[in-house]
Amino acid sequence: MNRNEAESLLRKYIKNDKMLFHSFASEAIMRALAKELGRDEEKWGLAGLLHDIDSEITNADPKKHGLVAEELLGDEGIEDDILDAITMHNAEATGMVRTTEFQHALAAGETISGLIYAVALVYPDKKIADVKPKSITKRMKQAAFAATVNRDTIMECEKIGISLSDFAKLSLEAMKEVAEKIGL
Q: For labelling, which of 8, 26, 77, 175 has a CA lying 20 to 30 Å from the CA of 17?
């Protein structure tokens, strides 16, 4: 499946603009991570783009989210390792623990996108261009800020050999590249 086909499929199941923005941001971060780690940018980008394809169907139910995505995408010819990363980004549904680089990257990458989005929204003009990596790492320490963002999941960046400060910078730069597409 190519990127355009994947976006068309995503739009079939996701109608909420904020969820689409999240998917595009996650895709950008995953592409940047793949480039940084010498992995397949197309494959990692597809995982980022499609990881929440079932969120409206499942109402993001943590017991179903990811498992339904695997069912939807399994019939679309998506490669097994992409399906695995998508399923495991919500490990709660599987009852298993993430173990692979791809799984950790997707979970951390899609999660930090929410934190970066929240940081951007506290700036007066609500633009990601004003956000600095240090602001992201500072907000990581403030549990009450964007309280639903799982900091432990973001810290899985260290399991793929990237420090939090480098991960924040890489993720921020990736999201800046698609700022217009993600409403920031």
A: 77
